[in-house]
Batch of 2 targets.
Target 1
Amino acid sequence: MGQIRHFIAITEEIKNHLQFLAESGCPGFDCSKESLEIIRFWGKRVSPHRRQTKAIVSENLEAIRRNLGDCRRCKLSHSRTHIVFGSGNPEARLVFVGDAPGYDEDSGGEPFAGASGELLTKIIQAMKLSREQVYLCNIVKCRPPGTRDPEPGEIRICLPFLKRQLKAVSPEFVCTLGALAAQTLLEKTAPVSMLRGRFYDCMGFRLIPTYHPEDILREKDNLPEYNRLRSSVWEDIKKIMKGLGID
Ligand code: SF4
């Protein structure tokens, strides 16, 4: 009798969770052979140098983009112009992850456009790299309406695609830009000011959080804060350069 009650309680919990997902905009589950194979290896460290293993455990970016399709999995699809999938080197040693596409990214379909994109380009160039040598993407791929942050339910639905992209690129370093990207990938709630400045192990990559270029630009009329943020970002970037062996 006790076992039956336990079974009913579990069934009820599953039902509630499925209802919650449906209300968050999740239309169903991708149980294709390809997706199940990827899920089987989630959380297992894959050395970027073990290309043969990588080929087994991860798909390529084109396959992930195809699988994403004209995504309507969450309500951000209602307000977007373009899906901003990601761009850059599919075998990059360094991936930058931002929070969500803004107006310029939504218009052009490319991540990190507009003023904050220009600042990021300058940072990448100061690292003696180019945008084509790194990979750029965001936590969610569609622009939230107005200037709001993506909601937890929207992030939860979109995040598996980002994780698949990270597995596919298999970089040595991931640099998150802004609070939301760091908090999401590290599953922490601390502000970026407390998370930044050190490396974390995340999905087998070395992840370092720093401020978003937008955080710096927002302070352009407050010179002391503007300079503080700029030098904090540069300190973090120098740590990545050291890791990459760039003098
Ligand atoms: S944000 Fe992600 S999950 Fe939501 S519609 Fe866009 S691509 Fe799909």
Target 2
Amino acid sequence: MHQYIVLKIEMPSWNTTEVIHPVVLADDNHRVLIDCGYAGSLPKIEEALIQHGIMPQNVTHVILTHQDHDHMGAAAAFKRKYPQAQIMTSVIEAPYISGEEKSLRLIQAEQLQQSLPPEQQAFGEAFCNMLRNIEPVRIDRALTLDEELPFCGSCRVIATPGHTPGHISLYLPALNVVITGDAMALEKGKPVIANPQFTLDLDLAKASMERLFSIGAETIVCYHGGVIRKEDVIL
Ligand SMILES: [Zn+2]
């Protein structure tokens, strides 16, 4: 059995509701959760897994595509409750997620804070504080870029820098699916650069999105926006 399951998790965030799409890869020996949601989203992740017949205590691995709080915010809580799950991310992102290095998003937010107009200062400060309170998580295995993992036949790590320097996406040839993380987002059915204003290197991000398209997979799953089929892509 080789299967991928797209979860749909709704989280209140500031004055809106964010919808995110972690993915589970399932084969005879593995249950792999790709990205782990916001701080506080563990109960929703557990609920979504169980709804799809995946017991959280059977999750063997968690792959974090990058260091952002909406992807790794619940990873420490997940690991505490389900210590069997091996936490993995790219070798470049690992020190930011494990807390050895200060989060690049926090550095960016603190720099932005100085140029915010007075009416946005309070929000900016609250955002920085939220990032400061994200719990780091130890990385059990740092992935080299372009590594091949033994999930669902083959799960290829694709380096997709730009959004963050060590961002990774995943390609599963047997399932004909690409899981983008934030290397691509869907807005109204259109693939776009996720949050271009916060993208750390826009040129790299564009090249990464091209790299994902060039794979030609039948299905693309975006963490923000969900599933798009090749034939539905509007460029
Ligand atoms: Zn994100």
